[in-house]
Amino acid sequence: MLKGLALTPPIIGRISIGKVVEKNGKRMPEKDDEFTLTSQVQNKDGWVPHPLNETLRQANTKLRQIPVRLLFDDPDLNMRASYSCFDRQTGRPVCVGNGETCKRSTASGVQSMSCPAPEGCELAQKGCKPFGRLNVRIGDDDELSAFVFRTTGFNSIRTLSTRLRYFHAASGGRLSTLALELRLRGKSTTQSHRAPIYYVDLALRGGLRLSEAVAEARAEWDLRQAGGFDQLALDATAREGLEQGAFEESVEDSPAIVEEFFPERGPGEGAQEDEHPSTGTQSVTDQLAAKLARKLTSQSAAAA
């Protein structure tokens, strides 16, 4: 086995609420108000849609709910979140931390250091921010593969992490057999200037009460165990595999991640930076500044 290589859940597709588009000769992230399922293949037009992308849609409506199951019972195996910094020139990960400790790539190799979080770290000026990865199963074709949802949005990271812990506690640790669904939710904040922002939530599958879902999850978990399926061993193996590597992202995946989530733009303007409203290539602040400038110019011309 190769040392230093993180063994991550096998990925067969991506879940996104944004995309990278070309405008004025530049490739830039752009947010969306629905889910899109893609394969791991790109062409000149971007990521190729996964067949499930159309299967899950009903009457051409926007895809805002996706039925899912989880691979693991441990919340931290299903959802990994960290403060992450990438080298925008090479696409390679530079530093990954949790607010207490971090692993940082240096001239002498990867070193463990203290992590003061972005607010108190000089390296954070190069683009360090929260980065979450959620793995979920969609369909029953392959029970040991997953779709990945990546996000740098604080609302999504906090909501998904909280839901996983709540469901884990309520089900007696049977996360892997709970019938769940991803939901796209919207809200407005002072920061968004009343424009809608979108984030991802994890909920019980439509129509199920918590007590019913937990009873079904426990029965399914016991049935799988009786059939020889060892969920505890699977969790332990996954944990060991993730801990083996310094960084989760591979050299092949990192450049696309940097382009979509860590672009050289103002903070919070990534394709899935769901803390901010979907306003295309111009932020709300830029729009207000431009409007004020036009108003001042008009007033000056009138006065003259």
Give a summary of the structure in a few sentences.
This protein is α+β, with helices and mostly antiparallel strands. About 25% of the residues lie in helices and about 30% in strands. The chain has a nine-stranded mixed beta sheet with strand order 3-2-1-10-9-5-6-7-8. Strands 4-11-12 form a three-stranded antiparallel beta sheet.
Description:
- The chain has 304 residues and is an alpha+beta fold.
- The protein has one domain (11-81, 131-303).
- Helix content is 27%, strand content 31%.
- It contains seven helices and twelve strands.
- The radius of gyration is 21 Å and the shape is globular.
Task: Outline the secondary-structure elements.
Layout: E1 11-23, E2 26-43, E3 46-49, H1 52-55, E4 65-68, H2 75-78, E5 79-86, E6 93-97, E7 101-106, E8 109-114, E9 129-136, E10 146-151, H3 154-170, E11 180-187, E12 197-204, H4 210-226, H5 231-243, H6 254-261, H7 284-303
Order of helical and strand elements: EEEHEHEEEEEEHEEHHHH
Q: Tell me the number of structural domains.
A: 1
Query: Using only CA atoms, what is the Rg?
Result: 21 Å
Largest sheet: 9 strands, mixed
- The count of DSSP E runs of length 2 or more, i.e. the number of strands, is 12
* Poorly predicted segments: 266-292
Distance between the termini: 77 Å
User: What's the mean pLDDT score?
Assistant: 84
* Strand residue content: 25-35%
Structural category is alpha+beta
Proportion of residues in helical segments: 25-40%
Give the neighbour order of strands across the main sheet: 3-2-1-10-9-5-6-7-8
User: What is the global morphology?
Assistant: globular
Number of helices: 7
Region (Disordered): 245-285
Pfam families: Gp3-like (PF18897)
Organism: Roseateles koreensis
Biased composition (Basic and acidic residues): 262-277
